[in-house]
Amino acid sequence: MADEKAFxxxxxxxxxxxxxxxxxxxxxxxADVATRWRRQRGEDVWFLTGVDEHGTKVQRAAxxxxxxxxxxVDRLVADSxxxxxxxxxxxxxxxxxxxxxxxxxxxxxxxxxxRDNGFVYSSMYEGPYCVGCEEFKLPGDLIDGEGExxxxxxxxxxxxxxxxxxxxxxxxxLSAFQERLLEHYETHPEAVQPxxxxxxxxxxxxxxxxxxxxxxxxxxxxxxxxxxxxxVIYVWFDALLNYATAVGYGAEPGSRDAERFDRxxxxxxxxxGKDILRFHAVYWPAxxxxxxLEPPRKVFAHGWLLVGGEKMSKSKLTGIAPAQIIxxxxxxxxxxxxxxxxxxxxxxxxxxxxxxxxxxxxxxxGLGNLASRGTAMVARYRDGELPPxxxxxxxxxxxxDALAAAAxxxxxxxxxxxxxxxxxxxxxxVDRVNGYVTEQEPWVLAKDEANxxxxxxxxxxxxxxxxxxxxxxxxxxxxxxxxxxxQLGAQGVLGPLAEQRISDVARxxxxxxxxxxxxxxxxxxxxxxxx
Length: 531
Ligand code: MSP
Fold this sequence. Notes:
This protein is α/β, with parallel strands linked by helices. The chain contains 19 helices and 18 strands. The strands form 5 sheets. Strands 3-2-1-14-15-9 form a 6-stranded parallel beta sheet, sandwiched between helices. The protein starts with 6 loop residues before the first strand and ends in a 37-residue tail after the last helix. Residues 12-15, 23-24, 26-27, 52, 239-240, 242, 272-273, 275-276, 304-305, 311-312 line the site of 5'-O-[(L-methionyl)-sulphamoyl]adenosine. 5'-O-[(L-methionyl)-sulphamoyl]adenosine is lined by residues 12-15, 23-24, 26-27, 52, 239-240, 242, 272-273, 275-276, 304-305, 311-312.
């Protein structure tokens, strides 16, 4: 039976205690490329991102800034979090803020359902809490402090002491879901990726799940419980629900929102950093089971961007703003670099030298040079008219075959979120075509009219290859590829780039002879090392 459900992918919702750095932009970019790839396949797609506005961390940032939490988040969302989507060129379908009424009301309703189902009870909580993680820690999670923190227990992620909390709370009966979660993961081994993350989650569940506090009485910046307004919902148990509230969970039956929920639920991928895996692969599916909803089909945990071997973070003053890179290299190169240079799922470091080197060799000299040589030669030797290709030789057949193989590998890899493999497949095709140009020497063929038919074939082969590259790289580098599409004159004869399908990309000879080809601006202008 055909799957009528939309492909639904989410990013985590980011804390607005501060402005975004490239770690946040990395997740958003990966999500954007994955969803643009699915759109290019012709799938119905829903891509959600947003911000996490409640909790102690945000409240304290606002206190320090001398404004109310609402003023703090309003300003940061408008000045930083919405603009960064444009900076990285994200095409999200929606943006959820947890202070929105649609979210608050539906979160309250959700917890009423879970309580009515018997999974919420009142009890005393006493234990360590890390404000940086907004997480109740288990004693085994903590590490011993040294130096200024000697004799204290520290959060391993933030390297700072935890706080001791004692309060009357409402608890979520997480322990009731231990067996169901194990069974779920045994029957769905693909539901947590990569494999190392799956193993970590299963072994955590096997060690035994204890009930967890789902409300806080000492915090005021949050969503009040409907049955006890002295307590707000614990920020994670408010935030995780954004994936459901934003797409219409709890909406009026028959409304557009309710229809959307039916169309997209459950999420195909909840994309997260590995720091928040446990919330997404243990608490989140358990919450959904408690409310009678289907859990996500896949939680994918990617690695960290590191600085000096540690997770890049604003609290450690190691955050680099996306614009610092994008102002120099552009959004396409940013997207290309991070997904190409770091195996998705592993940690990686950013360096200006590596970024500059790859930009120059792979984008400016590789793809950029091929595009400018190809279009310039059609302009020069054929007055900008794409020539026909009558007799293909083994050299052209080799390109045709290489394209089919590249398209197949790239499709599998991008669908599996294995971005670097997908990018390398297309890049190798680019290298192959560059090699073909060097071997065929069209500039030599152009010197003798007797080679006219042969020159036609070579120029046609280059442009047809560029057509396929524009389609395959469009999800990754939409700005440069739309410019290439224009230079090839493809819009007029094949329609919009967004409407070209991956399944059709390897079909040869799509650009009709006579198509107007123009040499436009360089796709990836050279950048001085010093800049
Ligand atoms: N608000 C929670 C998530 C709630 S989701 C229901 C949160 N926010 S966060 O702003 O601290 O970080 C969210 C995500 O940002 C991480 O999971 C990760 O995807 C991304 N990153 C933040 N720093 C990062 C790096 N240094 N490297 C890679 N990704 C990083 O946790």
